[in-house]
From TrEMBL:
It comes from the Bacteria. SUPFAM superfamilies: C-terminal effector domain of the bipartite response regulators, CheY-like. Residues 3-118 form the Response regulatory domain. Gene3D superfamilies: 3.40.50.2300, 6.10.250.690, Winged helix-like DNA-binding domain superfamily/Winged helix DNA-binding domain (1.10.10.10). Keywords: DNA-binding, Phosphoprotein, Transcription, Transcription regulation, Two-component regulatory system. It comes from Shewanella submarina. Residues 128-225 bind DNA. SMART domains: REC, Trans_reg_C. This is Response regulator transcription factor. Residues 128-225 form the OmpR/PhoB-type domain. The keyword DNA-binding applies. The modification 4-aspartylphosphate is found at D52. PANTHER family: REGULATOR OF RPOS (PTHR48111:SF22).
Length: 230
């Protein structure tokens, strides 16, 4: 059972989601525009947020961005939107969303994604050991990556990617295994990994001067530290 905030301006859609999730034992709260959502998130604790993007007053992406510095490391946000273009989906993840569900969707699929996000959140909150590869350290308490005295705060997905690669280092992780671990609900023809690897590499390169993630063509990806130049 989880305390969930539904942020959706269509009352019929919000009610349908609520009825389905209440039957699963969850507790629901509602916001019908961005201002209401911001007020409720400021005053209450939620285990998960279901967030529409096309909201009155404050756009859903701005609501999500407002949580970046603190709550998104432990509180999953699932975006529910009729915006189906790749740029919109990537914008949602870039704002810190854990998952992105395009409308229309079935309540059964939504419930499955809620379950996956809640399980990941619970697993993350129970982790207390850092993961170290050479001088690189993944801080599992605050979802940050540290190297050479510099720290980068990660989104949940970036943390999950680095955690998987660093735990397997120096071995290569197959692309199919990464998909199965991070996107179990995606269809086989969906390929969310490449774009997220690109964004994560860009963040790492900008902050540390190296990408840390090597592509092994035809196989997958590997965590790799560049050797210092003499």
């Amino acid at each position: 059972m989880a305390n969930i905030l539904i942020v959706e301006d269509d009352i019929d859609i919000a009610q349908g989601i609520a009825e389905y999730l209440e039957a699963k034992g969850h507790l629901l709260d509602f916001a019908y525009n961005g201002k209401q959502a911001m007020a409720l998130l400021s005053d209450n604790h939620y285990e998960l947020v279901l967030l529409d993007l096309n909201l009155p007053f404050i756009d859903g992406l701005d609501v999500c961005r407002s949580l970046l510095t603190e709550q998104l490391t432990t509180m999953p946000v699932i975006i529910m939107s009729a915006r189906t273009q790749e740029k919109d989906i990537l914008a949602g993840f870039d704002c810190g969303a854990w998952d992105y569900l395009t409308k229309p969707f079935s309540f059964a699929e939504l419930s499955a994604r809620v379950g996956v996000c809640l399980a990941k959140s619970a697993s993350t909150s129970q982790i207390h050991n850092n993961i170290e590869v050479g001088e690189a350290c993944l801080n599992c308490d605050n979802l940050s990556f540290e190297y050479a005295g510099t720290t980068l705060q990660l989104h949940q997905l970036g943390f999950d990617l680095l955690k998987l690669l660093m735990n397997k280092s120096p071995a290569t992780v197959k692309t199919a295994d990464i998909h199965k671990e991070l996107w179990p609900q995606e269809t086989p023809d969906s390929d969310p990994l490449r774009a997220h690897i690109y964004k994560l590499r860009k963040q790492l390169k900008t902050t540390f001067g190296q990408e840390f993630i090597a592509t092994i063509r035809g196989v997958g990806y590997r965590f790799q530290l560049e050797q210092p130049q003499d």
